[in-house]
Every structure is written in C-alpha cells, then in structure tokens.
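Sanity check

After download, print the first record. It should look like this:
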Amino acid sequence: MDDATFSIDFAAAYAILAILLACAFFTATNLISAMYSASYADDLEPLAESLGDTLLRSPGEPDGWYIDPSAARNASIIGLSAGDPNVLSAYKLEGLYFYNASGLKEALGLVDESGLYGLRIEIKSFDGVLYRTAGYPLPPDTKDVCVSSRIATIKEEDGTYRDACVTLYLWRKHVGAM
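Expected structure tokens:
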C-alpha cells in the first residue's frame, strides 16, 4: 500500500467523522433550545392568565378611559367589561385603538423597559369575524408563545349580544426563534 492511498483514506474518514460530529452538535443544540423555549412559554402562563382576567372582569379605571385618547393615556387599568364579568363593551373594544403596541403593554401594567415582551390581543366572534386586534403582530418564527383564550360575550352598541373568543398572546422577544 502506498502513502498516497493511505492519506486519501485518512482524509475521507476524517471528513466523514467531522460531518457526523457537526450533525450531532447541531442536533443537540436544537434540542436544548427547544426545551428552553417551551419552559419560557410555561413561565409566562400565570402572567397571561392574570392579564386576561383583568381585561375581561374589570371595567377599567377611570370609568371613561375609552372615550378619548387623553383619557386612555391616563387610565390606571384597562378593562373591557361592560359591568359583568366576561361581558365586553363594544365601546371599550373601540378604545383599544387608542393604544399602539408598546402603549398597550404599559397600560396593562406589563413593565417592559428593555422591550423583551410581545403582546397581542385578538377578539374573534364565533361567526368567524375578527372583531378587534391590538398589540404586536405575532412573529411567525417565535416558538415560545403563551396563548390564553377565554369565551366572552360582546355587548354591541345597539344592545344585542355576540359571543366571541378573546385570545391573548404573550411571548418573550428574541427567544426560541429559528
């Protein structure tokens, strides 16, 4: 056996070993990342539940926080309740338009000076109509989103009622992204 054959065989074996080790490394890091991402979403669940409870059970403070932008900026609590728990006021849903995404987080008491959290609220009636959305768009590559859904009734301006699902999405930005 000559030296050229030995060195080609060694180089081929070394290349295959390097590829296998690289694949094993990337697989392990992806599994660890997925495990941590799932735990981040679990950590956010109590906060998401608390925010959902506040939105659906509280009328908000002061009473007219939803009437104009200056009142909305000065609201100490945003609540969507029309007076009864899980009965939402159509007027208060319109008041969500006074908030941009970061202002909504601040008004809900989510202290986020470093911009770590994302928040989105979707209110969809059971007939499939997306009634209202507020907050950040949901990033498609984020894997650690905590979703909190509740069934509610919307009291329309004309006094009729419409059943709806209120979904709150809460996530940590830049965590669990691919």
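If your output differs, re-run the checksum step. Summary of this record's structure: The mean pLDDT is 84.
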